């Protein structure tokens, strides 16, 4: 066998191995994916890129495939929060919270994380709209549901964004509780340099 033929044989074998590996490892992920998951993942990517209109369309597509897809419902709520459509965000999050409270199984840890995040995000919306008692109640429900899911950014997030002491649900709830104990004229409910560190939650 000539060197040229041998080289082509090795090249084609290598390509064949790559194709088979792709079929074996990648294709099942698309074939076995639950209805709505693909569009929800696409929506998440667009949401991170702040392409809100496009993200909302993807979440809507996910809900067409699978009504009550919790990731898509959360995604829609986050779009509404980011675009300051707070009334719509509250409606979406309230629906998600009610749905999860009706259907969540005791051993569904991921679902509990989503429920905790939904309470936290609704609390954030109430907070921004100066509905502080409602915000406090939602923060407490979030912590009771799954504090670990809303305990704050992980180490990677802190390294990437350089915030060693980010705002958390617990910190904000404690602050609101302390302020509400004071006479109204002495309360300081907004501290812009701290409030801007408050982040939304998506498990």
Structure commentary:
The protein has 203 residues and is mainly α. The protein has one domain (33-195): Serine Threonine Protein Phosphatase 5, Tetratricopeptide repeat, CATH 1.25.40. The protein is 70% helix and 0% strand. The protein has helices at residues 3-25, 27-31, 37-48, 52-65, 70-82, 86-103, 109-128, 132-146, 155-161, 169-180, 192-195. α3 packs antiparallel against α4 (52-65) and α5 packs antiparallel against α6 (86-103). The longest helix is centred in the first third of the chain and has 23 residues, at 3-25. The N and C termini lie far apart (57 Å). The model is unreliable at 154-164 (pLDDT under 50).
């Amino acid at each position: 066998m000539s060197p040229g033929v041998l080289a082509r044989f090795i090249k084609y074998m290598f390509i064949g191995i790559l194709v088979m590996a792709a079929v074996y490892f990648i294709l099942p992920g698309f074939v076995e994916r639950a209805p709505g998951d693909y569009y929800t993942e696409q929506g998440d990517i667009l949401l991170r890129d702040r392409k809100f209109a496009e993200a909302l369309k993807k979440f809507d597509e996910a809900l067409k495939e699978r009504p009550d897809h919790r990731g898509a419902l959360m995604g829609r709520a986050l779009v509404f929060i980011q675009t300051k459509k707070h009334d719509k965000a509250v409606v979406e999050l309230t629906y998600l919270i009610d749905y999860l409270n009706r259907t969540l199984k005791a051993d569904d840890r991921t679902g509990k994380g989503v429920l905790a995040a939904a309470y936290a995000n609704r609390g954030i919306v109430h907070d921004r709209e100066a509905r502080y008692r409602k915000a406090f109640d939602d923060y407490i429900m979030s912590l009771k549901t799954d504090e670990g899911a809303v305990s704050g950014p992980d180490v990677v997030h802190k390294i990437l964004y350089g915030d060693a002491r980010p705002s958390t649900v617990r910190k904000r709830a404690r602050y609101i509780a302390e302020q509400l104990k004071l006479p109204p004229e002495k309360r300081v409910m907004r501290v812009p340099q701290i409030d801007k560190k408050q982040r939304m939650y998506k498990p």
